[in-house]
Amino acid sequence: MYNDVRLEKGMYNLSGKSFTAALEELDPSAAYVGTELESLDAFERQLKRYNIRVSGTNCDCVEKFFTSTDTAVLFPEYVKRCIEKGFDGTVISSITAVKTVCESNQYLGCVLDDSAAYTTTAQTVKLPESVVTEGTNAVVLEKYGRLINASYEAVRKQRLDVFGVMLRGIGIKLAVSVIKKAMSVLAADAEAVSASSLSYTSLAELYGRFDCFDMTTIIANPGDASRIMAMEQLSDSKISADGKLLLPFGSELIKTSALGENTLIGIDKNFALEFITNSGLVMETDKLIDRQLDQIAVSITCGFRKITPEAVKKIVIS
User: Among 17, 97, 169, 185, whose CB has the most other CB atoms within 10 angstroms?
Assistant: First the structure.
C-alpha cells in the first residue's frame, strides 16, 4: 500500500524509468480501482500520505515538502509536474501528429515516395507503387532549457499553488522556444499562397490548396490571428465544446508568438508533423532534495520532422 512505500533519492535515477513509474511499480494504481483513491496516481497518493496540499484554501507552503527526508524526495517531481503542465498545455499537442521517443541525439525517420498516380489499373499491368525508404537526412535534436534561480529562503514560505503557477509559466515560455523550431520545419519548402495582404480570399485559397488532406488547423501569430477574427466573413466562428476556436470552414485557429509575421501555416494535424525527443523534461533532482534551490536547471532535448509534405501549406504575405 502507499503508506508502506520507502522513498529514496535513487528512484529518480533508475534507467528508463521516471520517478512516477518507479512509484507505480511499488504501489500500482490498479490496486485502487473501486476505492476513493482510484483517481490518484502513485505520486498523488504520496502527497495524500504526507498531507501535502498543493492547492485549495488550505494550500501548504513550499517548506512542507522539507519536513522530513521522505517528503523532500517528492519535491523534484512536484516541480517537474508543474513545469510539464505549462509545457504540455501549449499548442504542441495541437500541431503534432505523433510523438516519437528515440535513444540518441539524432533521428533518421522513413520517407514515403507516393508520387505515382492513384488510378485504375488493368489486370495485366503492374500496380503503381508507394515506396517507403529510410531517410537520408537525420534530424539533430537540440537542447532547450532554463536555469531558475530561487533560494530556499526566498520560496520556503511561498504557497505551493502560487509557486506552481510561476513554474507553469516557465513551462509555457520554454515550450514557445521549442515551437519556434516546429514552425520553421513546417514552413520550410511548403507550398505557398502569395498575397499582398491577409484577407478572407487568401484564407479561402489556402483552404482550397488541400486536396487529399484536410486543413484542420491554421497557425498564426497574435497580430494575424486578431486580423482574422476581425474579418466580417468570419463572424460566424464558433467555440467548440473543448474550447477550440473554429472558423466557418472547420479549421481550428491557433495563435502563437512562435510564428513570425507575414506567414500563416495551414496543416492537417493528423499527418503533418512528428515531435521527436530522447527524454521528457530533465532536472537536477539531488539539489532540490537537499534544499539547494539556488539553481534549478530544467531542459528538454527534441526536434521535429515533417511527415507528409502535402499536409502542409502556407500563406506568405509580401
Answer: 185
